[in-house]
Amino acid sequence: MVHRRVKLLAVTRRTAILCGAVATCVVGGSVPVNGVLQQYPVLSGQALRYALGAFALLVWAALRGQSLPRPAARDLPALLGVVATGMLGFNAGVLFAQRHAEPGFVAAVLGAAPVVLALLVPLLRRRRPAVAPVVGACVVVTGVVVLSGGGAWQGPGLVLALLALAGEVSFTLLAVGVVRRLGGLAVCVWTCLLAAATAAVLGTVVDGAAAWRAPTAREAVALLLLGTVLTAVAFGLWYAAVSRLGADRAGVLIGLMPVSGLVSSVALGAQDPRPVAVLGALVVAAGCVIALGGGALRRVSDRRAPSAARPEPSPAVPR
Fold it and tell me: Distance of alpha carbon 43 from its chain centroid, rounded?
């Protein structure tokens, strides 16, 4: 009986790791897709994307016969923070960064998020960061320098990419508590609805009637992909991983973003497959693995099996 429970627990954790890996690869690979929307109004594009994502998630919940809990007043600051920085702010940062940098470079900078999470999560809990994240941070910085020689940037490209990195980190950090209380699916739905409404209002105020022009065929496909695959699927998978593994442990999987970003950039013809760009992306990913990979995954896989004294906690994300 104990053996069966241990096996089930291990599969559950491996599934959570797989969810996080797929989610980060989708996000990294979507960086060039965002580039298709360079000429489309930013805020209205965000409104359409998140409205599509919310619709897809609501359909999924309805098909499963699952009701979504309503957020309490104490949940609103975290939800609005995720919307402002981790969703609207992040995507605006990525879009504007690509006007001054190649997509592979932007994806590589975003790949430094595991190191930031590894440092911030212990500090917020009043614990001293481990040595491995510091070493990994140095490797990541080296990789970014190498990549900037191949995946080029100019002017404010690096600053904008770093702002997008801050949004990526806040998307995870601000959501930890509310995911624990409401579940990952509910958090995805409510943040998408809030983001769609906020972006629609801001877009109308800033751009007026020009905000709602009809997208071209390529732009419509990009919006559909971003709304369904990147938003509905990737967000749900990521919060499932965070709720099961924790923010600092799941964060190591973000190191997969630069690799998937570079691969998709080359596949779409947005960047040449130069050796130095490939080397830089791999160094960034290696730094993230050094920072969190081994220790984080060992802590997840070596945790003792549940018993009567230590029953397995109920997962925060409904299955």
Answer: 19
Which distant-in-sequence residues (6+ apart) come within 8 Å of 100 by Cβ? 153, 154, 155, 156, 157, 160
Residue-wise pLDDT tens digits, 108-152: 787 778 888 878 888 887 888 777 776 777 787 787 777 665 567
Residue 175 has phi, psi (to 5 degrees) of: -95, -10
Rounded to whole angstroms, the Cα distance separating 113 from 252 reads 8
Per-domain boundaries in the chain: 31-301
Q: How far apart are CA 241 and CA 21, in angstroms?
A: 9
Whether the Cβ atoms of residue 144 and residue 112 lie closer than 8 Å to each other: yes
Gap between the Cα atoms of 213 and 41, Å rounded? 8
Size of the chain, expressed as the number of residues it contains: 319
Specify whether the CB–CB gap between 154 and 101 falls below 8 A: yes
Residue 27 near residue 257 (C-beta atoms within 8 A): yes
- Which phi and psi angles does 318 have, rounded to 5°? -60, 140
Euclidean distance between CA atoms 14 and 71, whole angstroms: 30
Residue 216: pLDDT band (50, 70, 90) is very high
Q: CB-side exposure of 99: number of CA atoms within 13 Å?
A: 12
What is the CB neighbour count within 10 angstroms for residue 254?
Answer: 30
| Those residues with Cβ within 8 angstroms of residue 305's Cβ, 6 or more apart along the chain or in another chain | 2, 5, 6, 9
One-letter amino acid of 199:
A
Three-state SS annotation for 260-271: HHHHHHHHCCCC
Backbone angles phi, psi at 72, to 5 degrees: -85, 175
Report d(CA 149, CA 146) in Å as an integer. 6
Which structure tokens are listed for 56? 């897809």
SS3 content of the chain, % helix, strand, coil (to 5): 80, 0, 20
| Rg from Cα positions in the chain | 19
Q: pLDDT of 26-82, one tens digit each? A: 887 776 777 788 788 989 999 999 999 999 999 999 998 888 999 999 999 999 999
pLDDT (tens digit, 9 = 90+) per residue, 75-92?
Answer: 999 999 999 999 989 878
